[in-house]
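We store sequence with structure; for instance:
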Amino acid sequence: MLFSSIPFLFYFLPCVLIAYYLAPKSAKTKVLLLASLLFYGWGEPIYVFLMLGTILMVYLLGLGIEKYRDGIGEKLCFWAAVIVSLGLLAFFKYADFFLINVNRFTGASFPLLKIALPIGISFYTFQVLSYIIDVYRGKVAVQKSFVTLATYITMFPQLIAGPIVRYADVERQLIDRETHFSKIAYGIRRFILGLGKKVLIANILGEFCTHFRASEEKTLVFYWAYAIAVSLQIYFDFSGYSDMAIGLGSMLGFQFMENFNYPFISKSITEFWRRWHMSLGTWFRDYVYIPLGGSRCSLPRNLFNVFVVWMLTGFWHGAEWNFIAWGLYFGILLIIEKLFLLKHIEKKRFVGHVYVLFVTLISFVIFDAESLSLAFSHIMEMFDVGGTPFTSVETMYYLESYGFILLMAIVGATPLPKVMVEKVKENTNIRRVVLVFEPIVMVVLLLVVTAYLVDGSFNPFLYFRF
């Protein structure tokens, strides 16, 4: 079930919120757990049992860590939880990738397993790992309630698309949280804005990218317009889902971390990754990069640590070589910045902005490609290596059809709209008008989104690849 779907918006969510708000405080967690299992089971009825089995395993092994603290049993329970969690992720997500490449490089003919990828397994596996690692490190107390732990891992707002919520960040909220009016109002507003970003910007940009892929008259202008469109589509799709998750969390009394902070205004790739998918970046920093030695080691070792982290970051996104190449591409850029480039581009803001926009456009062409060879072909054509024609009637037609939404997306990817709204609100009289009309604007936006969805328009789910 997608957040951007009629069943979710007008059946599932209203019923869940009514049941949740009417339930006594002691029963709210149980209501949320049941709703989350129903949400996941809507599209993955079989894999609900896989997720519950994973939760039971980590619950029991967490108790084992606490019981055998400072003994060999502590380490055995910890490593068992880590190995089983990563093993399940590797089996379901990467088994066929490894088999395909073994067959390709050895000439063997091992049959592929062709196992469906459980939706959200990349996200909830990382949540499981953050819990068990923090329990092992003594940073959080072991959770003795299976219901509470299961609720943390299965919470439907962030189950299938993030942000990656750490147990340490919501430990207290799982036990004691308030659902007062201001949090609910903020959550509704944040959810609707995220829904608008997903449906009215990301989906329409996705239509443009679909036309590009289907075109037999690709031109230089079309290639670059596609690079811009696919970068913005991924940003608005992912950040839109994060906004919806944060909004839903607020409606339920939770406060989730921000996941995006206008990454395209960055002056370096180092800054870009402090602003893009922040929950994933900080997860790899705290649970992979720092344990490997971080930057507190020799330069060669530090560069190796960066290389490993970014290879894993790419591989986490999907079981294809283009994702690995995408991760390593950023890893190499970060190493170059660390060695000498960063100190130069920080002095020249405009140059830094241009550099970031250029290299990120290339990166998302790699990210979006169905294969590494296709990504390489697209990039070559973008630089006119094959004598690509400059433009065509078809290219201009699609630019005229989607030019306005492209422009809106470009502006929307900057803080400009937010700054303008804040400036307007500085005037007391205007702020009062805004407070009156804001709910009306939200209702209108929801109606427009609903009309778009009822029309059966393009509504892809990018996270099937994750």
The chain has a mean pLDDT of 90. The chain has two domains: 6-177, 183-267+346-454. Residues 6-177 form one domain. The two ends are 16 Å apart (CA to CA).
